[in-house]
Amino acid sequence: MPRSHSALAHAAYHDLLRALRDEGLRDLRGAPTLVERNGRGYWYDSFRVGTQVRKRYLGEDGPDIAARMQALRDDRVPAEQRRRDRARLVRLLRAEGFLGLDPTSGSLMAALSGAGVFRLGGTVVGTHAFRLYEGELNLVLSLEQTAQTDDLDIASFERLSLALEDAAAPPVTQVLADFDFAPAPSLQPSRAWRWRQTQGNALVEFLTPAFGEEGLRDLPALGVQAQALHHLNYLIADPIPAAIPYRSGVLVQVPRPERFAIHKLIVADRRRAEDRLKSAKDRAQAAFLIDALARDRPDDLAEAHEDALSRGPRWRDRIAASLSRMPQTAALLAAL
């Protein structure tokens, strides 16, 4: 049975997450503006530079974002005090046994977050995302489950990237270059979706959902190319914010844990023939999360499972193939 952190740690994590989310809505240079596109609302900080009106993307519209922006504009707590308060929460989480990041990974995540990668729709996927469910689900993760990977995978919707009309600053390519990453060769000259650190084994990959053939796509908001993959649209739909306990906290976003778990069942079967070790790791992460979610969030898990099954026979076949090797997990899903 998955173990939980203390109630104090759980509360501290959500205090840190709330503080980081609020920080992104402070210090507006102009007027908050709501723009509607395709039935969805997006908030921008609209301000004038010379004769031009510029817009900085703040986030998708929600039930409380306007009220939060007004409350934060009236808040007079100094920025340095807010930073110290967040750092105190990070120290508490580390003392309670929360996982951290090594200085290189932590500073890279902080730089990408500062450039706006996650504000502009970037979503951390893969093992780095799995590690961050520790706070969202209040779970104690073992070293075996969270063995640090040198790969950082960031996914985003191509259509969202086009619609936002905002861009990372400094450019993502510059952030990566500052950390000694260089584009890895691809089949298309002058286009790269993978960036490898010149001194070491670290790898950053950019991904996007494929609505047709897989291949390379542009992500204008991030200024990079991404590899389009099937099934990814299911994974990164409706992502959630997550806090990394590094320095004074780093705000990113990750897939919903129930979607991550079901997607791992699909991915495990998809790459079973080519990489058995990664396939086994996918199944182990799926089994752990499904066990926890079946106890804590069964309705969310059932909805995510039914959604995946409704997407066609190939989806159902891949899920069934993985579950045939996971009888306990299959029984949990069947009992929902």
Low-pLDDT windows of residues: none
Largest sheet: 7 strands, mixed
Distance between the termini: 17 Å
DSSP summary, beta strand count: 12
Query: What fraction, in percent, of the residue positions are helical?
Result: 40-55%
Strand content: 15-25%
What pattern of helices and strands is seen along the backbone? Answer: HEEEHHHEHEHHEEEEEHEEHHHHH
> What number is the mean pLDDT?
90
Rg (CA only):
20 Å
Overall geometry? globular
Q: How many domains make up the 3D coordinates? A: 2
Helix-strand makeup class: alpha+beta
Total helical segments = 13
Domain Nucleotidyltransferase-like: 105-309
InterPro entries: NTP_transf_8 (IPR022550), NTP_transf_8_dom (IPR058575)
Pfam family, one: NTP_transf_8
Organism: Paracoccus haeundaensis
